[in-house]
Design a protein that fits this description.
Enzyme class: isomerase
Strand order of the largest sheet: 11-12-10-13-14-9-17
Catalytic activity: ATP + H2O = ADP + phosphate + H(+); Couples ATP hydrolysis with the unwinding of duplex DNA by translocating in the 3'-5' direction
CATH superfamily of the largest domain: P-loop containing nucleotide triphosphate hydrolases
Number of domains: 4
Largest sheet: 7 strands, parallel
Pfam family, one: UvrD-helicase
GO molecular function: 3'-5' DNA helicase activity; ATP binding; DNA binding; hydrolase activity
Protein name: DNA 3'-5' helicase
Shape: globular
Bound molecules: adenosine-5'-triphosphate, magnesium ion
Distance between the termini: 62 Å
Oligomer: single chain
Helix content: 40-55%
CATH class of the largest domain: Alpha Beta
């Protein structure tokens, strides 16, 4: 037993050995919080706790996979599948799948992503004859989403959000509350959940039925949460429900790294843990194992500029290491070239592999120049969390056929297929078909059988619709009955609807897209091989939940390009942070929010994000900025200042470089109080 925890230091061990009660491990980046949580899980099992009685929540699916791999190394693989280890979303989905009837859903129920949800709202706004200028679908969806995240039901929307004594605001929220009501009805009818439902419906299920609540409280006797600083209100609520009455809760986090405030996360949850659980034990880890002393000292000095902070100590046995390289460039292009040259240099002369290197940016938009330059310097890269494989147009199109195959109630998928496949029948006629079906209590596909019953549909249009019904809808319905492995079913469907001819040929670059379609079909075959008992339904659900999953063409060594947000919890020997400029990092929105008094801590969240970015680095950290930035999609540039965060770093830990363009031009220096020239 003692051997298992020998890989931990004294404090970490203390945490991993505290098996009962409430425990908060509060510590800075790289201090081994995730490691401690992983070892504690193994320790619980070694101490005789049944793996199915442990609920462990991670922030991303990647983190869950990492943790599973480590635990199985520590105590064997057979227990992995018995554990409840995953993100809030995946754990809630499991609970909901076991109780579908109770939450008004049935077998085949799938998940809508944000794009799907906005499309539903758009259809409702169209059906309700609302003006899109006043009721922008995205804005309306965001309000609904926020309400769902805060567990506010349609009837309370106005009360909760409308400005007092403001007639327009009250009117607006009344209408939005009607849309919200209808949205919920459509989701139920279509037999789908949106992302927010996963948590909200689970809470409703547990609150409505004490027997079910007791069952899960009994099952999850030990609850553990990683990245606790980014738990939002509904997730917090869910945990509080489940943790009673045993109160065995073990959370780890770092208030300095709370970066999802904009999505409703609330760092007061971690700051107030001791109020929620007065008997809680608080363990602080102070030794950092990840980064060089220069990186730790500089990032600590940066974060201490925040007022909203718990005091923490951090030290390392590591040497100072290389200084942090700060580089200013004339333009994003020069900056991108600088990064590429540095990377080649590190690989050619310093033995780094491409996979040791990550390039972090505030938002993907900023990395455009870099994405253009990397191939020119022959540096293969992987864009993490950008437009993913599953967001490719042809894949999204094809997924609609598959969705209908598993969930015949998904009218959104049906409408999308109609829009993709049936030419010459516009939105208004589609809406007429819909209305006709509803009025006559028919299925919309029944109307497709004899479309001329709808006013405005002549023989030509009708022929197109009937052909669509035969070739696509009937194929889907027939295939549903057939007993084939899922990848074969998908392939069969691909052929029967003649996707190449009817869909791909209508898009640009059909040959290129066909390659991706083949990769997609191969991925399904792989999934089937690795998960023999599971089917198309699981495949679609899992891909929806795992937003960071991506299919790449080969196993080539690659540098990773990602946002600082998606780098949370990860570590790399070499990190570049690019575009470190005012209005970019800190983001313009945060500056505006602070300026307008809307959120005085908005810039603090940006600083925490910058702290997260810096602390991903183990050995080398390069920070760069440019004198100009792309100000709009038309390619116009504007002058810009280096980020305030650079001035908050201690000079003695830095090394300044100026990067000149080939054409000459002025070199750029960055010293405290020295303007960029
Ligand atoms: P973050 O806040 O960024 O999520 P963290 O506190 O979760 O960081 P970990 O990722 O658990 O930190 O650990 C950082 C690195 O330090 C990992 O590579 C981990 O294996 C290593 N590490 C942590 N504790 C020890 C230890 N006691 N001995 C050796 N290595 C350790
Ligand atoms: Mg961690």
């Amino acid at each position: 037993m003692s051997n298992l925890l020998d890989d931990l230091n004294k404090k970490q061990k203390l945490a991993a050995q505290t098996l009962k009660g409430a425990v908060l491990v509060l510590a800075g980046a790289g201090s081994g919080k995730t490691r401690t949580l992983t070892y504690r899980t193994a320790n619980l099992i070694a101490a005789g706790v049944d793996p199915k009685n442990i609920l462990t929540v991670t922030f991303t699916n990647r983190a869950a996979d990492d943790m599973k791999a480590k635990i199985s190394k520590l105590i064997g693989t057979d227990i992995i599948n018995k554990m409840n280890l995953g993100t809030f979303h995946s754990i809630c989905l499991k609970i909901l799948r076991d109780n579908l009837k109770k939450v008004d859903r049935s077998e085949g129920c799938l998940i809508y992503d944000t794009t799907d949800s906005i499309a539903i709202v758009e259809d409702i706004i169209f059906d309700f004859d609302l003006e899109e200028t006043k009721y922008d679908p995205k804005t309306v969806y965001n309000i609904i989403s926020k309400a769902k995240m805060e567990l506010v039901n349609p009837n309370y929307l106005t009360e909760k959000y409308a400005q007092e004594d403001n007639q327009w605001s009250e009117h607006f929220y009344k209408i939005v509350s009607r849309v919200y009501n209808e949205y919920e009805r459509v989701l139920t009818n279509n037999n789908c959940f949106d992302f927010n439902d996963l948590i909200k419906k689970t809470i409703e299920l547990l609150e409505a039925d004490t027997e079910i609540l007791k069952k899960y409280q009994n099952q999850f006797k030990y609850i553990q949460v990683d990245e606790y600083q980014d738990v939002n209100h509904s997730q917090y609520h869910l945990i509080s429900l489940l943790v009673k009455p045993q109160k065995n809760i073990f959370v780890v986090g770092d208030d300095w790294q709370g970066i999802y405030g904009f999505r409703g996360a609330d760092i007061s949850n971690i700051l107030e843990f001791e109020y929620d659980y007065p008997e809680a034990e608080v363990i602080k880890l102070e030794r950092n194992y990840r980064s060089s002393n220069n990186i730790i000292s500089a990032s600590n000095q940066l974060i201490n500029n925040n007022i909203q902070n718990k005091k923490k100590e951090a030290w390392t046995a590591a040497a100072d290491g290389a200084p942090i390289f700060i580089a200013g460039a004339e333009s994003p292009l020069v900056e991108a070239k600088y990064v590429c040259k540095r990377i080649n240099n590190l690989v050619d002369f310093y033995n780094y592999k491409l996979s040791d290197i990550a390039i972090l940016c505030r938002s993907h938009f900023q990395s455009i120049q870099l994405q253009n330059q990397l191939p020119k310097f022959r540096i293969p890269h992987q864009l993490v969390g950008g437009v993913s494989f599953f967001d490719r147009q042809e894949i999204r199109y094809f997924v609609n056929y598959l969705k209908l195959l598993v969930n015949p109630n998904d009218r959104l998928a049906l409408k999308r297929l109609f829009r993709i496949e049936v030419h010459g029948v516009g939105e208004i006629l589609l809406s007429e078909i819909n209305k006709y079906a509803r009025k006559n209590q028919m299925e919309i596909t029944d109307v497709f059988e004899s479309p001329t019953v709808v006013k405005g549909i002549g023989n030509n249009k009708a022929a197109n619709i009937i052909e669509f019904q035969r070739r696509v809808i009937d194929s889907i319905y027939d295939l549903r009955e057939e007993n084939l492995p899922m990848h074969q079913k998908a392939f069969e469907l691909y052929q029967r609807v003649d996707f190449d001819k009817n869909v791909l040929a209508e898009l640009d670059d059909p040959e290129g897209r066909k390659k991706y379609m083949n990769m997609f079909l191969d991925d399904m075959a792989d999934f089937q091989k690795n998960n023999p008992g599971r089917g198309l339904y699981d495949y679609l659900l899992i891909n929806k939940l795992i937003s960071d999953k991506d299919i790449t063409e080969d196993n080539q060594e690659k540098v990773k390009v990602m946002t600082a947000h998606s780098a949370k919890g990860l570590e790399f020997p070499v990190v570049f942070i690019i575009g470190v400029e005012e209005e970019v990092f800190p983001h313009l929105k945060s500056l505006e929010e602070k300026e307008s008094g809307q959120n005085q801590y908005a810039v603090e969240e940006e600083r925490r994000l910058f702290y997260v970015a810096m602390t991903r680095a183990e050995k080398l950290l390069f920070i760069s900025f440019s004198k100009q930035k792309l100000s709009n999609e038309q390619g116009q540039y504007k002058q810009i200042m280096p980020s305030r965060f650079l001035y908050e770093l201690p000079d003695q830990r830095l090394d300044f470089t100026s990067v000149e363009s080939k054409k000459g031009g002025s070199g750029i220096q960055m010293r405290k109080n020295v303007e960029v020239i």
